[in-house]
Amino acid sequence: MQYFFTGKLQAFAQQTVYIINSVINMDVTIVDEKIRRIAGTGIYANNIYKHLPAGYVFERVINFKEICFIKEPGKTKYCEGCLERDICKEKATLLVPIKIGEDVIGGMALIAMTDREKTKLINNLENYTNFLVRMADLISTKVENELKSDENLMLSNNLNTIIESYPYGIMSIDCYGVVMEFNRNAELILNISANSILKKQYTEKLSCELIEKAISGGASYQTVKAVFKINKSSNKELILSIQPIVQNEKLQKIICFFQNNKKSKKINKIVENNVKYSFNNIHGQSIELNHVKELIKKISNSNSTVLITGESGTGKELFAKAIHYESNRSTEQFIAINCSAIPDNLLESELFGYSKGAFTSANYNGKMGKFELANKGTIFLDEIGDMPLNLQAKLLRVLQERKIERLGDTKTIDIDIRVLAATNKDLKMLISEKLFREDLYYRLNVIPVHIPTLRERKNDISILSKYFLEKYSELLLKDIKGFLPDTLFILNNYSWPGNVRELENAIEYAVNMEITEFIKTSSLPPDIVNFRENKVLYTSTYQNNLHEAIDEIEKNSLKELLAIYGDSTESKKIIANKLDISLSTLYRKLKRIEEHTYKKY
Q1: In the CATH hierarchy, which fold is given to the domain comprising 471-600?
Q2: 3-state helix, strand, coil in the chain (%, to 5)
Q3: I need a labelling partner for 263 at 20 to 30 A (CA). Which of 120, 324, 383, 557 fits?
Q4: Over the chain, what is the mean pLDDT?
Q5: Fold of the 3-155 domain
Q6: Residue 592, CA distances (Å) to 484, 585, 586 in order
Q7: What DSSP line would sit under 480-509, residue for residue?
Q8: How many CB atoms lie within 10 A of CB 470?
Q9: Furthest C-alpha separation in the chain
Q10: Is the pTM of this model over 0.90?
Q11: How many helices (H) and strands (E) does the chain have?
Q12: Helix (H) or strand (E) holding 107
């Protein structure tokens, strides 16, 4: 089987070789089981999907399922059958098979093209071999997941049985409003027969404001109360969840789950859990962060507009969600829109919707805007500083009157909405440059909330690092238990211009790169390590406290290791081995920590 023929798997293989190349700084290539190149860097990047010459050493790797290192390409017995042995430009090559179980599905090679790279490869042969094997395993896992999709196709054949046995009513509606699935419980709850509604417009038998919003704008709902009007006569209050199905950024259909409204206490409990979940995603215990959390709790139930400011990457949307889920609007929609991510000519229709026939490419039935979708809930206007001036005037009127007009329509629509806005720009400077309306600024800045940068809450770096480590270790199927002391030292003293987002990306990168149980400095992104070497260690102010800082980090790391492995002699031998120090050195460090503790008290 030729696993790499699909675009998705080929793109993943190409991404993998780019990662290896960026880490080791040598060219990498991957072939499938037919000895056809499907990914490569450097001179190999231009020969994708071409078959390698007959007799190429990859044949041996795939046929014999073995790792192969060629120190002198073109001059060894492995190269005897290769048609290009006399013109080979490679200085040294390390090849590993890519396997699923015992089946070889391809091979990967790390190639030295210069004498300097050859020396580097020889000196680090064991480490590079282990690294290449790990990356080959990563590709194997990806291929296995794709194979499982075939199994999922078989499971989908039993979907009707699952739908019919589900204890709630289930109804799926395509993007045109046509009912595609309608199970037995839906018939019983709504008193509508499946035959009378399937393959027909749902509006022929029922109406529901939330369903209309979901089809019009892709809104989703989780366990909310909704009123269904059935057969244009009777009303029924149900508990409704709606999940939109989107493909290629286009709504395909929505799936509605509903049940009779008999367990309001359970619903309230679910809402409470949503609030806790939202606050649990704001990690940290610093004074600066706790101050913002307390402010959010005070203002959440207010209807006043909030302007959230802070540098890029501080998590402004996360704080906006916390305000919403802590408020009395938490069971309603939270709609977020990035004002800088949508072209100016489309932003107005996205915000306020458009009426039937408003412009040539418009949906025939018109479309709700984000403000209508968020009615009774919260709308979050991110990057508000990038909103065009003409729309700022319209937004100001909406904030003043709490009414909107769809594009191409003269009818006003009343809205009950909480507005949250955010920006990483200096709005007062934009006002002075005539790029932002001063009256809109004061209308938005009723309650200002400023999110501190990560460098202003350095005490939270270790907490966030541990959280992201656990998150990505689980996602990437790694068993990484913590950070080595010098790694924590670097993380705690980097400036983090990208704030929490940059920290999360750095930890995700490190988890991908690390092959042991603890994150080493070499697994961190190079820019972060280089910052430490070039800007931190050589500043005289910091060097005065350097040893004290390292001692503190080392003490905390040793305590964490003891908590993981235990306090027995055998446990300490394991810890010493992990840290690459002798057992006696470990005992000296532990004794120094103990003595320091006694002095402190």
Answers
A1: Helicase, Ruva Protein; domain 3 (1.10.8)
A2: 50, 20, 30
A3: 324
A4: 82
A5: Beta-Lactamase (3.30.450)
A6: 18, 11, 10
A7: --EE-HHHHHHHHHS--TTHHHHHHHHHHH
A8: 15
A9: 88
A10: no
A11: 23, 20
A12: strand 103-112
Query: Residue 137's pLDDT band (boundaries 50, 70, 90)?
Result: confident
Listed range (26-35, 128-137, 276-285, 305-314) with the worst mean pLDDT: 276-285
* Rounded-to-integer distance, Cα 210 and Cα 239, Å: 11
Let me know how long the chain is: 601
227's tokens: 């009123």
CATH class of 162-262: alpha beta
CA 557/CA 486 separation, integer angstroms: 10
pLDDT of res. 434: 93
Nearest to 96 by CA among 72, 126, 117: 126
Q: What are phi and psi of 66, to 5 degrees?
A: -130, 155
What is the per-residue pLDDT for 83? 73
251 residue type, one letter: L
- The rounded distance, in Å, linking the Cα atoms of 258 and 215 is 16
By C-alpha distance, which of 64, 56, 2 is closest to 29?
56
Residue 128 above 50 pLDDT? Answer: yes
Q: Specify the DSSP class assigned to residue 36.
A: B
Query: Which residue is it, tokens 């739908």?
Result: 163
Distance CA 169, CA 184 (A): 7
- pLDDT surpasses 60 at 441: yes
Token pair belonging to 311:
């540098």
Residue type, 240: L
The residue among 575, 382, 572 whose CA lies nearest residue 485 is 575
pLDDT of 160:
64
Token representation of residue 525: 């992104």
Tokens for 356?
């039937």
- Amino acid occupying residue 134: R
Distance CA 94, CA 111 (A): 6
Q: Residue 332: exposed, middle, or buried by beta-carbon count in 10 A (0-12, 13-18, 19+)?
A: buried
- State the burial class of residue 405 (Cβ atoms within 10 Å of its Cβ: 0-12, 13-18, 19+): middle
pLDDT of residue 51: 82
Q: Which amino acid is at 28?
A: V
Q: Do 192 and 210 contact (CB within 8 A), yes or no?
A: no
- Count CB neighbours of 4 within 10 A: 26
Nearest to 526 by CA among 513, 541, 539: 513
In the block, tokens 């005065």 appear at 544
User: Of 164, 165, 172, 229, which Cα lies nearest the Cα of 203?
Assistant: 229
Of the candidate CATH numbers 3.30.110.70, 3.30.110.30, 1.10.1040.10, 3.40.50.300, the domain formed by 268-450 belongs to: 3.40.50.300
* Domain 268-450 shares a fold with domain 471-600: no
- Dihedral sign for Cα 502, 504, 507, 512, please: negative
Strands 306-309 and 447-450: parallel
Task: Write down the domain spans for the chain.
Answer: 3-155, 162-262, 268-450, 471-600
12 Cβ partners below 8 Å, 6+ apart? 139, 142
